[in-house]
Amino acid sequence: MACCNGNCASSSTPPAGPRYRRVLWIALVLNAAMFLVEIVGGMRSGSVSLLADAVDFAGDAANYGLSLAVLGMGLRWRARAALVKGLTMGAYGVLVLGKTAWNLAAGDVPEPYTMGAVAILALAVNVAVAVMLYAWREGDANMRSVWLCSRNDAIGNLAVAAAALGVFGTSQAWPDLLVAAIMAALALTAAVTVVRQARQELASLKTAPAAGTVQLVRSRQL
Predict the structure, then answer these.
(1) Cα 84 to the center of its chain, rounded Å
(2) What domains can be seen in the chain, in order of their start residue?
């Protein structure tokens, strides 16, 4: 993905205009609502993967709000926001792994019907958000982090629904715990991707002024 004028967004990516801002607001509201739904569903069913997905919805709502806050700012601030979001996604992955290990030791079996119903509702929400954000998937680190969040959430919802079927079929907790671990791995992978791109964008901003200064000195010498 080539950089142009200090902005590493693809030339085919639409600008972050009013349409993108509107999509982020819709995504924020939907994610905040689904956080509440999944918290209740996770508590009622005893599902680790559902609770993990609820925490993910809360983190995404905060990330969309952060993206809206820096939307009109320069690339430096957008890259810094992406760096914060990447680190948050990484922390979420570690948290889910810890909760998975805890429930593995406890041996509790979740209730699959609530798991499945809430997972399907969450999938519908996340697919809708992912479709709305698809046009900006190759943007700068901030845009890309938003896209990766929505993509990972849709994948996670499918996995939770599959876990519900697994728990129903086996009457054991391991499908739920396995999916929770996979969701944690997805979060950690996305975090590495976003943090790497954000650091590259920040590094390019540091070298750009220096290159401009050298060019100015040479022109004066001539």
Answers:
(1) 12
(2) 18-221 (1.20.1510.10)
